[in-house]
Amino acid sequence: MPDYELERQAGEDGFSLVAGVDEAGRGPWAGPVVAGAVILDIAHVPDGLLAALDDSKKLSAKRRDQLFEQLRECDGVVWGAGEASVEEIDGMNILAATMLAMRRAIDALPKAPDMALVDGNKTPDLPCPARAVVKGDGRSLSIAAASIIAKVTRDRIMATLAEQNPGYGWERNAGYGTKDHQEGLRQFGVTPHHRRSFAPIKRIVAAESDPHVESA
């Protein structure tokens, strides 16, 4: 389970406002990539909320939604979210777009952090020092909280897009290449929300323009 040790170490190094940063949506075939940033003042966060924080992927959708609302309403939590669009993903590649979303999440914080703990093995260009933390959403409470902010924010974006683009199952698969998403592509084709730089979508686009190209 994540704890506050990395944040405490940063505090001992002189950093008073430490933000955890994480992303959601690097792998899907459709939709933006979204990042969350969270600063925790644990003296003002209920113990029950701290104990419940974990890597968002380990939590049920219902539990993530509950924790998302608790984080947003808690006086001891400062949070921000940022995203990079499908056009940006296709224009600069998914890694660069993820770094951009993380920067935007930091910029969206009401308070500017003086240090960031970033999930993964790379850090974006930030206005403060940053440390990459591999599997950080399972190690740091701030990163775990950021993972929940990012995941729920993105899932809600995809649910809205699903209402506008029925047939792909985005409200269930969040844009990942599941069977129902693949069936939607076969029936309805590629939408403006699909990542055309991703190989499966690129093949479909090529097949639509040239019937001799294999789409699957």
What does this 3D model show about the protein?
With 216 residues, the chain is an alpha/beta fold. The chain contains nine helices and five strands. It has a five-stranded mixed sheet with strand order 3-2-1-4-5. The radius of gyration is 18 Å and the shape is elongated. The N and C termini lie far apart (40 Å).
Quick structural summary:
With 216 residues, the chain is α/β, with parallel strands linked by helices.
Strands side by side in the biggest sheet: 3-2-1-4-5
Percent of residues in helices comes to 40-55%
Largest sheet: 5 strands, mixed
Number of helices: 9
What is the overall shape?
elongated
Uncertain runs are: none
Strand content: 5-15%
Briefly note the structural class of the backbone: alpha/beta
Mean pLDDT, as a whole number?
96
Taking all Cα atoms into account, the compactness measure Rg is 18 Å
Total strands? 5
C-alpha end-to-end distance:
40 Å
> Which sequence of SSEs, written as H and E, runs from N to C?
HEEHHEHHEEHHHH
Task: Reconstruct the topology from this structure.
Layout: H1 5-12, E1 18-24, E2 33-40, H2 47-52, H3 61-73, E3 77-84, H4 86-92, H5 94-107, E4 115-119, E5 130-133, H6 141-164, H7 170-173, H8 179-188, H9 199-209
Helix pairs in contact: 3-6, 4-5
Q: What are its keywords?
A:
single chain; 216 residues; alpha/beta; 5-stranded mixed β-sheet; 9 helices; 45% helix; elongated
